[in-house]
Amino acid sequence: MKIIGIGNAIVDVICKVDDEFLVKNNLSKSNMKLIDEVEFKKLLGNLKIEETVSGGSVANSIVGLSQLGNKVGFIGKVSDDYLGQKYEQGLTKEKVQYFYNKKKESLPTGTCLILITPDSERTMCTFLGTAGKINKVDIDIKAVKNSEITFLEGYLWDEGEPKEAFAEAINHSNKKAMSLSDKFCVDRHKKSFLELVRNKIDIIFANEQEILELIDAKSLDEVISFGRELNKTLVVTRSDKGSIVITKNEVAECESQKNLEIIDLTGAGDLFAAGFLHGNINKMSIKESLQKGTEMASKIIQNIGARLK
Question: Does residue 112 form part of some domain?
Fold first, then answer.
C-alpha cells in the first residue's frame, strides 16, 4: 500500500450560515471548536443540512490520494451505529481500504458541523464522540508496516489513549507524515508537537499561522531557517501567497492559482496534502509535488465540501 492515514473518523455535516449565527453562538470564524453532545444537538437544531460526508482531515486527504489513483487505507474509530456504517460505506465507495472493525461503543460516531459563511470561510464545531477515544489496540500494525507512508492527524493527538495510539503507529511506520491541523491544536500541544516534528516525523504539513505559533517565530525567514536546520520536509501553505517547501538543501515555492471562483475553503489544506503526498510517493520533484498540491487545493475550493466530485 502507498499510504495509510490515521485520524479522527468524523461524519461531516455541511451547513450554510450567516455571520450573525457565529456571533450569536459565540463561535470564532475559520477555527475549529470542540463541543459536547449537548451543544452539538443545540446547534444542529437551528441548521439546515446541505450534505453529509465521511470526513475528518486526514480521511479527506486519503480520499484525494485514492482519486489520484493511489492504493490507500485509513484507520479511524467509529461506533457500530447508523453514522458509523455510513462512514465505512463512504470510504469504501471512494476505494479506500478501511482498517477498523466496528463494534458498539459507549459514545456515538463523531460528527463535525461545517458552517460556511457567505465569504466562503468555514467554521467547524466538532463532537468527537468515539473518534477521540482511539487507542493503540485500534491500530492495525500489519497495515501500517505494509504502507510506504503513514499520514497522521494533529487533531488526533491527546493525552492518554490517543497519544499511545499515535506512538504505536509511529513505532511501526516506514515513513511518517503529519499535519499540525489547527492553530488552537498547536497551542494546546506545542511542546509535544515540537518534539514530534524534531524527532519523529519526516514530512510536516502546516499553514503559516500554525508553524509560526509552533516555533514562536515572527517571520517566514525564521521558518525557513528552522526548516533548514530541521533536515526534514517542511511544507507550509500560505493561502493566496502560495506555498513553500523547506528541506536542508532546498527551498521551493509555488504561487497560488489566480482567478478562481471560490465557493468553500473546506478541505483546501487536506487536498493540498493529498496532492503533495501523491507527488512524493510517485517520485516527483519537490516543485512538482507543490504544484500538484496547489492544483488539488484549487479544485476543491471551487466546490462545496472536502470531496472532489
Answer: no
**Interatomic CA distance for residues 27 and 128, integer angstroms:** 17
Output the nine-digit C-alpha cell for 13. Answer: 455535516
Residue 75 in domain: yes
> Containing domain of residue 251, as a range?
57-82+94-104+131-300
The residues, any chain, with a CB within 8 Å of residue 297's CB and separated by 6 or more, are 237, 268, 269, 271, 272, 275
Q: For the purposes of burial, counting CB atoms within 10 Å of the CB of 20, is it exposed (0-12), middle (13-18) or buried (19 or more)? A: exposed
Could you report the per-residue pLDDT of 104-162, keeping only the tens digit for each? 998 989 999 999 999 988 899 999 899 989 999 999 999 999 999 999 999 888 778 98
Beta strands 203-207 and 251-254: pairing type? unpaired
Q: Is 86 exposed, middle or buried (0-12, 13-18, 19+ CB in 10 A)?
A: middle
CATH, residue 67: 3.40.1190.20
Q: Is the dihedral of CA 205, 207, 208, 209 positive or negative?
A: negative
* 161-166 contact pairs (CB < 8 A, 24+): 161/133, 161/134, 161/135, 161/136, 162/132, 162/133, 162/134, 162/135, 163/192, 164/135, 164/136, 165/6, 165/134, 165/135, 165/136, 165/138, 165/139, 166/6
- Please tell me whether residue 151 adopts helix, strand or coil conformation: strand
**pLDDT value of position 242:** 93
Domain count, the chain: 1
Amino acid at residue number 254: C
The pairing of strands 72-75 and 110-116 is: unpaired
Q: Mean per-residue pLDDT for 257-274?
A: 86
258 falls in which pLDDT band (50, 70, 90)?
Answer: confident
Among candidate residues 131, 123, 154, the one with its CA nearest the CA of residue 55: 131
Write the pLDDT tens digit of every residue in 173-207: 999 999 999 888 899 999 999 999 999 999 999 99
In this structure, is residue 305 part of a structural domain? no
Whether residue 136 lies inside any domain: the answer is: yes
* The amino acid at 238: R
